[in-house]
């Protein structure tokens, strides 16, 4: 009954997220929070180690989120996507704050993503 | 502004997919989210009691459904509506505005979450939530024991 | 509808200009509102000649810290509603306006909320999550992405501590009114 392109919720692919903070800074309701740290990664053949951001925590407060989709549109790495999942009711206000695990669990299936023409399916969190 | 009259009495509905459940809804529709309640009825997700032949319901809940933007000016009317609802009663906060203020979280006139004023049993996220989310939320309600006071609810006067 | 165009008048001529247009047939009052320009506040009224279907927009400019203007309510009864709204939202005092009850807001709200100087309390008292930076692993040195970030759309002055102090007390005061 619910079409695949339905804007039910917003899902995260943590492996695609570079902790660039763009979504956090552009969200009009300030409902995304992100913790990250940097690490030095030495790659074989590289002269110097590379500094990479490592994502520690990613939270969206769906109590506050106004489903504007700005974060999905602006993420340069397609780490956020619309998902038709809608059964997110909670018995507490705190239960509406979703962390990485919950945000990844709603990542749209390849079918949904194809219908919606958005990222998803490929590069799903489970592939990481 | 006179807000002394309490909105229309609650109406009874059956919830699609939950044949045992009957909900008596007092809908406080204050903004766009209220349309989704109508959409749920039109889509046959909320079935007015008596409109079709339904079997006996084993559980009935009286529900105050707050759908839409609660302003500080209107908040007393919501509290009155809650007070007018017969026990046992549960309150459902439907949509970002009712949950936290939502898109109007920074507006000086909007109540930042109706749970500051009345105890909320189920919060349904969305702007607006889909009608299906309302049904899922109501189904969740049937399995809750009673209103659970959120941390934010402690601020209620 | 055709437009009579924009007319700018001094605050002293406001009433006379509007009365003149009314006698020319602009008898239908449409709306009145204000625009905050910082040091000044502009007030605009739109009126219509229902016979010729011509509209007129009349503007005047007031000092922001002494925003007083003659009320149009003697000429246009319908202006009362808009003037009450402009009074509470923009802090314009309409001289001669008989009904000064607040229209939409609680009387205790403090600064007129549509003034740009009115802080958005919710944004001022909350930490902006975008200010967070990746904690590094002890590496020293410049990282060009670490310039100070400010939330988009929030004037920097709102984030100053003195404003926060004001705001916190305003919040407390309005909380008491609940
Ligand atoms: S949809 Fe809009 S409000 Fe929700 S997290 Fe994304 S940017 Fe923020
Ligand atoms: S914009 Fe995308 S990559 Fe950047 S922090 Fe947000 S989710 Fe991660
Ligand atoms: S949550 Fe969104 S759809 Fe619902 S009342 Fe508020 S603005 Fe409207």
TrEMBL record, chain A:
It comes from freshwater metagenome. Residues 8-37, 56-85 form the 4Fe-4S ferredoxin-type domain. This is Unannotated protein. Pfam families: Fer4_7. SUPFAM superfamilies: 4Fe-4S ferredoxins. Keywords: 4Fe-4S, Cell membrane, Iron, Iron-sulfur, Membrane, Metal-binding, NAD, Quinone, Repeat, Translocase, Ubiquinone. Coiled coil: none annotated. InterPro entries: 4Fe4S_Fe-S-bd (IPR017896), 4Fe4S_Fe_S_CS (IPR017900), NADH_quinone_OxRdtase_chainI (IPR010226). GO terms for cellular component: membrane. One of its GO terms (molecular function) is quinone binding.
From TrEMBL, chain B:
Keywords: 4Fe-4S, Cell membrane, Iron, Iron-sulfur, Membrane, Metal-binding, NAD, Translocase, Transport. Residues 58-140 form the NADH:ubiquinone oxidoreductase-like 20kDa subunit domain. Coiled coil: none annotated. One of its GO terms (cellular component) is respiratory chain complex I. GO terms for biological process: aerobic respiration; electron transport coupled proton transport. InterPro entries: NADH_UbQ_OxRdtase-like_20kDa (IPR006137). It holds the Pfam family Oxidored_q6. One of its GO terms (molecular function) is NADH dehydrogenase (ubiquinone) activity. This is Unannotated protein. It comes from freshwater metagenome.
TrEMBL record, chain C:
Residues 8-121 form the NADH:ubiquinone oxidoreductase 30kDa subunit domain. It holds the Pfam family Complex1_30kDa. Residues 131-161 are annotated as: Disordered. This is Unannotated protein. One of its GO terms (molecular function) is NADH dehydrogenase (ubiquinone) activity. SUPFAM superfamilies: Nqo5-like. Belongs to the complex I 30 kDa subunit family. InterPro entries: NADH_quin_OxRdtase_su_C/D-like, NADH_UbQ_OxRdtase_30kDa_su.
